Structure formats: structure tokens, C-alpha cells
Amino acid sequence: MADWCSLPVDILGEILLNLDSAQDVVYFSAVCSSWHCVFSMFKTMWFSGIPLLMLPENTKENPNFFRKLFCPNKQKCYQLKLPQTFGARCWGSSCGWVITLDLNLELYLFNPLTTARLGLPPQPTMPNQIKTDIHMIRDCFVDKAIVFKADGGDNDYIVIAILGEYCSPVAYARTGDKTWSSIPASETYKSVVDVVQFGSQTLFLYQRGAVGCCDMSTMTVMEYLPPPQGILDNVGLSRLYLFDSFGDLIMVARHKMEVLNEDLDAVEGWDLDVCYRTIDFKVYKLNFGNKIWEEVNDLGDVALFVGNNASMAVDVSGTNNCKNNCIYFTDDEWQFWDGPTLYGGGHDLGIFNIANQDFEILYEGDDIRSNFCTAL
Predict the structure, then answer these.
(1) Of residues 252 and 7, more confidently modeled
(2) Cα separation, 200 vs 348, whole angstroms
(3) For residues 272 and 275, what is the distance between their CA atoms, to the nearest angstrom?
(4) Contact 186, 223 (CB under 8 A)
(5) How many Å apart are CA 299 and CA 287, to the nearest integer?
(6) Residues 283, 254: Cα–Cα separation, whole Å
(7) How far apart (Å, rounded) are the C-alpha atoms in residues 63 and 94?
(8) Is 271 or 220 the better-scoring residue by pLDDT?
(9) What does the alpha-carbon distance between residue 138 and residue 141 come to, in Å, rounded to a whole number?
(10) Is 104 in contact with 80 (CB distance < 8 Å)?
């Protein structure tokens, strides 16, 4: 009989890295002490191919701090005990880390699969502080937070925080820093809505669709690209996202319909528990030759992931249950999340097929609502 416990470390590592679900990774770690040792060595390198969906907390039904992670590969939910995320506003990333901002106004990088945690400077060291209660600061001060791998060791990361509507600068910090620093707002373009690393460049996407290149050594923004023509003409509620899609620079415009309470009954097919939903996406690719954005409807074997997290492009070839040429989206209208029951947050998620313009269901559970941090 083969002695599976004595397989070479590099072979076991390759086995681990080719597993396609979080459950299989956990099972791998429990086989024996030698496999658990390999798990400890390779766990930070594992990626499922398709992002996991971490559902909102539910302390009433899960008093022991269990939290559900939905795995699209397996179409199943798994429960992990994650007390580190409870009461915290969270943002996901493409690096395997979740950024948490808790009611103590402490920020961390947290890995929900390995439970590793790295400290970041506390929120009160960010620029443009406002005087309000801690719940409001947790809920609204940071709109979005994005993680980039830095040039140092394994735990060297840069986090860029896009501050909320009350604050225009962008804040950044490196793991190990004591305070946050700010990147001054542009004189021309005020509000950053997304940030992406494109090769060696750090690109800022602004509210109306312009793109600026930030020199992270001097913290200045240069070389602006104009927005796609007519990208936000004649639309109401909307969001923009920016991607490095395997060498292509992609911008996505997400359009939503907002309906006032008194008009809900008049809208055919409308869920009476919500007051907004996504109705359309437009996708643009930069033509580097003439520096013009061109609308596209075919991304090949690529899926895009958008929401109140880092914008992410995934190669779906060889990935189970991940649909190509589609946009996976989660709710990111945080200004509605703490409102009355009719508003709420978390309902606006699904899958959009770019080619045929159809919407599909991503997750059918009834546990997606939260008043401060929805599924991510």
C-alpha cells in the first residue's frame, strides 16, 4: 500500500494548489500531520479560481460566530467560525485577504481560510476625520478598500482606501505602517471610485469615467485618459469599475433603476422589499493605439466581478461553474443599507450575460441582507 504521508512536499503542494474548493483544502489539511504541514506552507498561495462569496453576519442564528461562505464551484455554502469579522465592515480582494474595519475603528487584513491577520493603521489616523458616532464611521467613512501586493516579503501589502462621500482624498498604508497617508485630490477630477494595478502602474478611476495614473513614489496623479464617450449620459444611479483583464484595460458602467416608495406598486415585476436594482451593464476596452474606449460585448473566456470589493477579472477556462463573458455583481449602494425595511442592502446581486443582456441568479438564499456590510 502506498505511503501517501511520505509524498514529497512539492508534489503535495501541487495537489493542494489544484484543489477547487475551500472544503477540499480544509479536508487536505486534516489528512495527517505531514499534509497539515504542507497546508501551512502553501495555504496563502491557494486560489479557488472563482472568488468565494462571504455572506453577511447573523449573530442571532449563529451565536458562535459562524459565517457562511458560498462556493460557486460546488454551489454549496460552508460555515467557518470567524469572530474576527463580526461587527466589522468588510471588503474582499484578489489577494485572498479581507479588509475589516470594526467598531473599535481598527483595520486588519484577515484571511478567512487560514485565520491569519495583519494589522493596519487605525481609522482615526486617516485624513479628513469627521465627528460622528462610531457606527457611522464604520459604515460610511471608507467606501471601498483595495489590496495590492508590495515588493517586500510574504506579508508586505499596500492597502488603498477610497474614502466616502464626505472625504475626497485617497488614503493608503503599507502593512507595518502606524498611520495612513493621503494622496491629494486632483484639481480636475475630484472623486476616485476604483483603483487597479495595471502592469507597473497604479490607475485611479474617477466618478465620471476619467482615468489617472498615480506615481506611488511621489503620490501624484499624472497622464489622464478621458472617459468613454457618453458613458453616464441620461442615467441615474450608477457605478464604474476598472480592471486589468489579462493585459486589456477594461471599464464597466453599471446602471441601476431607483424607484421611490410611492411608485413601487406601479413598476411591473418589482420586488416590494427593495427600491433599486441593477438593470444594465456597459463594457468598454481601451484601444491603446488611439487612446479611445471602445464598447465591447465579447470578453472571451473571462468573467468580471464587481461590487463593494476589488474589481476582478478571472480566466474561467478549466474553472467549474464559472460563466465566461459574464459579470458577477454584488450590492454596493451602501447609502441605502441602514435605511428602513423597504431599502435594506444586499439584494442587488446576480450574474449578467454580456452577449445576450440576460440576468441570472447567483445565490438564492434569504440571508443576504445587512444594514452595514452585505455579501462580498
Answers:
(1) 252
(2) 34
(3) 8
(4) no
(5) 14
(6) 9
(7) 29
(8) 220
(9) 6
(10) no
69, 171, 81: which is closest to 120 by C-alpha? 171
Using the predicted structure, report yes or no on whether residue 374 has a pLDDT greater than 70: no
Is it the case that residue 53 has pLDDT exceeding 60?
yes
pLDDT of 212 > 60? The answer is yes
Neighbours of 33 (CB within 10 A): 7
Dihedral sign computed on CA atoms, order 54, 146, 330, 262:
positive
Q: For position 49, what pLDDT does the model report?
A: 60
Cα 62 from chain centroid (whole Å): 24
Length, in residues, of the chain: 376
- Rounded to 10 degrees, the C-alpha dihedral 263/268/273/278 comes to -100
Residue owning grid cell 453577511: 56
Work out the pLDDT band at 187, boundaries 50, 70, 90.
low
| Secondary structure of residue 22 in the 3-state scheme | helix
Q: Taking a C-beta distance cutoff of 8 angstroms, is the pair 213, 203 a contact?
A: yes
Q: What is the end-to-end Cα distance of the chain in Å, rounded? A: 44
Stated pTM of the model: 0.81
Backbone φ, ψ for residue 125 (5° rounding): -90, 0
Residue-wise DSSP of 202-231: EEEEETTS-EEEEETTTTEEEEEEPPPTTT
Q: Mind listing the pLDDT tens digit for each residue in 277-289?
A: 788 899 999 898 8
Residue 341 confidence (pLDDT) above 50:
no
74: three-class secondary structure by DSSP: coil
The answer, yes or no, to whether residue 337 has pLDDT greater than 60, is no
Q: What is the pLDDT of residue 168?
A: 59
- Banded pLDDT at 1 (limits 50, 70, 90): very low
Show the cell assigned to 197.
Answer: 494595478
**Distance of alpha carbon 192 from alpha carbon 162, whole angstroms:** 7
- Coarse DSSP helix, strand, coil percentages of the chain, rounded to the nearest 5 percent: 15, 35, 50
23: its cell numbers: 472544503
Comparing C-alpha atoms, which of 232, 230, 196 is closest to residue 211? 196
Residue pair 57/370 in contact (Cβ under 8 Å)? The answer is yes
**Cα dist from 156 to 150, 201, 207, whole Å:** 5, 18, 30
Q: How far apart are CA 111 and CA 92, in angstroms?
A: 10
